[in-house]
Amino acid sequence: MVKAIVTDIEGTTSAIAFVKDTLFPYAAAALPDYVRQHAEDQKIQPLIREATAMVGREVCDLDAVIAQFLAWIASDQKVTPLKTLQGLIWEVGYRNGDFRAHVYPDAAKVLKAWHAAGIPLYVYSSGSIKAQQLFFEHSVFGDLRYLFTAYFDTTTGPKKDAASYEKIATEIGLPAETILFLSDLEPELDAAKRAGLQTCWVIRDPMPPSPEQSAQLGGHPRVDDFNEISI
Question: What whole-number distance in Å separates Cα of residue 101 and Cα of residue 131?
Fold first, then answer.
C-alpha cells in the first residue's frame, strides 16, 4: 500500500526542455551581474565561500568565483551552492514574470487527485528547496505549492545514493516500503529501491523502448504519464 509519494521534477512532473532551455540559460546570463551586485549580501557570501572551498581557492577573486559557477552550469553539476544561487536568480525571473514553470497536464491533474485523496506528497529534486517552491508557485497551472507536504534537495544527499532515500523515509515518518518514488532516471530509482521504497519510472519519450531497453528497466514499473500510475 502506498501511504506517501515522492516525486522528482525535471523529466517527471515537468519537461526537461524548460529547465535546459529556459531556466539554465536565464541563470547563466544573469549570474555575473547578480553575484557582483549582491556579493556582500548575507545570503550570497556563504555561497561564495562554499564554492571557493570546494575548488581549493581563497575568496580573493570574484571573477574566478563567477567563472566557476558558470562552469558548473555548463556541465550541469549538482553542486549545492550553485543550486542555491540559481534559485535566488530564478526568483527574480519568476517575480518579474519572465517565465512560468512548465508542468505536464497529467501530472497536475493526478497530483491534485492524490492530494484530494489525502495522500501526502513530497518533492525530491537536485534544485534547491527554494527553487522547487518557486517552480510550483509560478507554474502554468498557478500556485501548486499547497499540494506538497515538504521538499527535499541535495542537502539531504545525492539522488543516486540509497542513504538519501533512507533519510527521506525517516523524515516522512513512514516505512520505506509504503513510499512511492517517481523519477525519469534509472540510477535514482535504483537507489530508492535499494533503500526499500517502491518505484515508478516515468518515461516521457514518445518513442517506445526497444526490446533490449525494455528488458533493462531494472524491475521498475514503467509509465508514460501520471494517469497510468497505479497506487
Answer: 11
pTM of the model: 0.84
For residue 113, the model assigns a pLDDT of 98
The DSSP string of 114-177 is HHHTT--EEEE-SS-HHHHHHHHHTBTTB--GGG-SEEE-TTT--TT-HHHHHHHHHHHTS-GG
Interval 54-112: pLDDT, tens: 877 655 588 888 999 999 999 988 888 998 999 999 999 999 999 999 999 999 999 99
Return d(Cα 222, Cα 203) in angstroms, integer.
Answer: 7
Both 79 and 104 in one domain: the answer is no
Spatial contact of 106 and 226, defined as CB atoms under 8 Å apart = yes
Q: How many residues in the chain?
A: 231
Q: Which amino acid is residue 137, in one-letter code? A: E
Between helices 45-54 and 80-96, what is the axis angle to 10°?
A: 140
Residues 69 and 131 in one domain: no
* Paired residues of 223 in beta bridges: 202
Q: Is 123 in the same domain as 86?
A: no
Q: Could you tell me the pLDDT band of residue 53, with boundaries at 50, 70 and 90?
A: confident
Tell me: do 11 and 49 sit in the same domain. no
Q: What percent of the chain has pLDDT over 70?
A: 92
Give the separation between CA 129 and CA 16, rounded to whole angstroms: 18
| Cβ count near 157 (within 10 Å) | 18
Q: Say if residue 170 is in the same domain as residue 212.
A: yes
